[in-house]
Amino acid sequence: MKSLKLKKLVACAVAALTIATLSPIGASAEWKQDSNGWWNTEGSSYSTGWRAINGSWYYFNTDGYMKTGWVNDGGTWYYLQSSGAMKTGWANDGGTWYYLQSSGAMKTGWVNDGGTWYYLQSSGAMKTGWINDNGVWYFASVSGAMQSGVIQIDGKVYYFASNGAMQVGNVTIDGVVYTFAATGEATGTKLPTPTLGFTSSGVVVDLSNPTETESSSHSSGGGSGSGGKTSQDPIDQAFSSQTRVGLSKSDPDENGAVTIKPSVFGFTPGDTTTASIGGVTYSVKKEISVSLENGTDVGISGDYNSGYKIEKGQSGTVTVVISLIGPDGSLKYVNATPTYFSNK
Known about the structure:
Helix content is 4%, strand content 47%. The chain has two helices and 31 strands. The chain has helices at residues 17-20, 229-238, and strands at residues 30-34, 37-42, 45-46, 49-53, 56-60, 69-73, 76-80, 89-93, 96-100, 109-113, 116-120, 129-133, 136-140, 149-153, 156-160, 169-173, 176-180, 186-187, 196-198, 204-206, 209-218, 224-227, 245-249, 258-264, 271-277, 280-292, 301-303, 307-310, 315-325, 331-333, 339-342. The model is unreliable at 1-18 and 210-230 (pLDDT under 50).
């Protein structure tokens, strides 16, 4: 990151040496296809491994067939589009965003794209909402953009320094001293005024009307955008019956912990489908988010089928998270009202 408090991004001196040392295919090469897929001829033989063809990199298995999707070469992951061409920059795979460096190598950790910081998990998947990096808390919107300044999250006010790190203790903002608890939220009767509001999953909340959220999109360059209420309404209406959450709660165990079991309507978390709304066909993914009142899921164990263990003294929310990927790669979310639980 841009502060000593963040681990420094280590630039790769040489990425994907196996690619860089290969030569492009000559003019005698020719693409061919059969029922098993595509291959590329090289004289009387065929291409294997990495090959640069007409300005794009391709990867061929040992049997000569062109590879698509993810490929691990020497411990490094690359993403090959449906055309077989190696992807660089942002890639959306199954509703999850990844970032491929100019060498094609999948990035993990922090990445600065166009002046905005994003965090990519060890799997390469872009993280949204709360991020714990080496013991320091950060927060990212649904677009993945790291936030800074005074932010409201699930109704609580937090302060993130310019490097994105959540602040605790006494902090001076615009000449006024405010106090933030060890868990990050502002305490006392004097609270700073937030400039932005989010749910714990990173969906933007209109601070003038907390029941509304703002749709978000991810451009090919890693940026973010928002859609107006008019375009959002049909999306919300299409899934309104599936944003409700039912909750059951067990009796306390010997330590006072309870197990909550959410129930959703019309889908199973993790489902993927398609939906046509306003003449646009979207790829839809349906999940739930379980978080504590501090906005994190740290300390929550369990899953949807077996239930989630909530320790004594904890409370939080369960929220349906339905994401839609448009044909242009734009990302939208269905507005959903959190369902609260408490074990206090």
